Amino acid sequence: DIGPEVWLEPAAGWNDTAIPPGGARTVELRTRRARALAGSALPRYTYLTFRTRDGATARLLVQDNDAPPRALDPRVPLAPDATSYVVPSVVNALSRLGNTFVSRLRLSNAGSEDVQADLVFTPREADGFDAAAVRRFKVTVPRNDVVTLTDPLVQLFGLAPPVSGQLEVRADASRIGLLTVTSAVDAAAQGGGTFGFQLPTFRSGEGATLGRPHVVPGVSVNAALRTNLILAETTGRDAVEVRVAFRDRGGALLGETRLSVPRYGQRQIALADLAPAGVAVSGGLVELSVGSGGGAVAGVVTVVDNRDDDASALVSRAADAAAAPSLSALAGRRPSWAGSAGAAKVRSGIPSAVNGFRTFPGTSLPYTFRTLMGFTSAASTSATFRLVYTDLSQSGRQVERTVTVAGRTSVEYANVLEELFGIPSGQASQGPVLVESDPHGLLYCRVYSVLPNGTRGDAFPVIPLPPEPQALVTGPGLAAPLAADGLEQSVDASRGTRTNLILNEWSGRPATVSVALYEAGNRTRPIAERAVPLGALGKVQLSTVFRELDLDTDERRKDRTNVICVVRPLSGEGLVSAVVTTIDNRTGDTRNVPLLPAGGTTGPGVTIGF
Q: Alpha carbon of 199 to those of 303, 413, 495: distances in Å?
């Protein structure tokens, strides 16, 4: 079987004779590019599935590459007001468990014209203008389409593993805003399926600078986890010297170091090396302070389970308590609990907190999924968080709580629904959490399950809400659709991934949105579309999104890859966010990704006011 695209074929005669027991056969694969959709992007992907007479199958994802791209002239500095995107880490290297971590990069073009994108790779610890080390190539992202690059360091740049570093994506100033750049790191599991995590993408100039430090809250270090800090310089203007300080949840300094990060360079350290030997940390805080240099450095903390390579990523954010916009812009939309718009506050939402039992894929055993939530004050003064949890398992019952955190400290709940909101132990419960906090309050969240051989879970997006400048909602006056690329569908529930879509209304007014799915190469006409109404402060989950849009019937079910999910407002005055949750059908590895507007760069995990 070959699909969803049909440009692939095995050489004639590959199956003329039986393969003997314990034997092997090499099958030559060829491309017939005339069968591909006109104008579709390279590399192209399709599945090759071998099926025995008794119905057993094995599946391979096949990539059709373009001719090797030509090298471009050396990198030149960007204008101070120019925009580019920086992926802080791309990699092809072995993990401690012997699995190979490989990057996957997606460039989605929301425009009606092709975009020529320059990809510029700087190896770890190298200077971004070292012509002998830097690799730079050009790719074309067709209009209304996506280019997916699996293992770009080896497949695109021709580098020999192990190798890692930072990647910058450039394009013409008039078209860079049409691109959305996303990145993930995958490690193939020995029993099939994958483990891995999403990585954030930064805009050029984002990160800590002189006089404006960044912090990463929610950091854990113990014997079961390896926790790394990745630093990436995002301007190319100047190298920076960064003081890295690691504190426990009570604010006590565990250790510190100073690192020099070259222009467009990357540095990485293990945070366990900064803590005293044998000390276990949860809810810790990493501070990034630039001591010298005119550049900017963004930080990402990766937390990897030593037993299975399941991982999450946390993103650095500004630590100062700059005044937030007034909430007067939300007058008339505020839910009744929020009171009047007074002093500057930051509003955010957690689309779904969960507690209770869920069946783990591949077993008949139940494992408890729970939600970790942490609260941090990034300033020397205390931060207050006011929360409302809507328990949709109990007819929408609302529970209000207030959490106050002393300056430079954190409070963390390993199971927030039971420990903070009073849900009885083990009781199934799920629903959204609406949060109003001081501007210097940091909020982080993770949904996970503890298994005998490791954990399964991921950081869960905290959605910034209006009037935040990076609010991830769509609705009246916010006509730009939200989108997430790279969804997959598998005809075999024992492999591939399944995808759920979580929709939330946050303003207290009803709304109706359109949910549409498009395949790569044909994004002018959806393969499925559905109008979804949401009540005031309501939540709707499409599980799976392919099934809920009638693509899982016998007539329409097929293997699909590189599908984009688009959410558009249709009617009503509500403000709606959307989050995609993908679950590996073999390993149970979970990834949570917010849908973004074109050109969006919000990363996973921590989101706070700016």
A: 12, 24, 23
How far apart are alpha carbons 341 and 325 in whole angstroms?
A: 11
Query: Which strand (E) or helix (H) includes residue 155?
Result: helix 152-155
In angstroms, the Cα distances linking 109 to 73, 182, 204, 585 are 24, 12, 19, 29
Cβ atoms of 470 and 462 closer than 8 Å = no
As a whole number of angstroms, the longest Cα–Cα distance in the chain is 78
Q: Find, among 458, 217, 212, the residue nearest to 315 by Cα.
A: 217
This prediction has a pTM of 0.88
Other CB atoms within 10 A of residue 283 CB: 23
User: What does pLDDT average to in each consecutive run of 10 residues of the chain (610 residues)?
Assistant: 90 91 93 82 86 87 76 81 94 91 93 92 96 91 90 92 96 92 90 88 94 94 94 97 96 96 97 93 95 96 90 88 34 41 76 81 68 94 96 92 95 96 93 94 91 83 83 79 92 89 95 94 90 95 96 92 94 94 90 82 36
> Which residues are registered as beta bridge partners of 402?
386
Contact 285, 181 (CB under 8 A): no
Category of 97 on φ-ψ map: left (φ > 0), alpha (ψ -120 to 50) or beta: alpha
Return phi, psi of residue 401, to 5°: -145, 155
Candidates 501, 504, 363, 353; CA nearest to 428 is 353
Supply angle C-alpha 322, 606, 471, rounded to 5: 65
pLDDT at residue 469 in the model: 67
Cβ-contact 95, 139 below 8 angstroms: no
Q: How many CA atoms lie within 13 A of 57 on its CB side?
A: 16
Both tokens of residue 422? 């009073």
> Can you tell me the distance from the alpha carbon of 220 to that of 283, in angstroms, rounded to the nearest whole number?
6
Instruction: Annotate 323-370 with three-state secondary structure.
Output: CCCCHHHHCCCCCHHHCCCCCCCEEEEEEEEEEEEEECCCCCCEEEEE
What residues have CB less than 8 Å from 38, skipping those under 6 apart?
Answer: none
Per-residue pLDDT at 341? 41
Question: SS3 letters for 391-438?
Answer: EHHHCCEEEEEEEEECCCCEEEECCHHHHCCCCCCCCCEEEEEEEEEC
Query: Do strands 511-518 and 560-572 pair parallel, antiparallel, or not at all (unpaired)?
Result: antiparallel
Closest CA to 357 of 258, 450, 462: 450
What letter does residue 73 receive in the DSSP assignment?
P
Q: How far apart are CA 250 and CA 269, in angstroms?
A: 23
At residue 206, φ and ψ (nearest 5 deg) are -75, 145
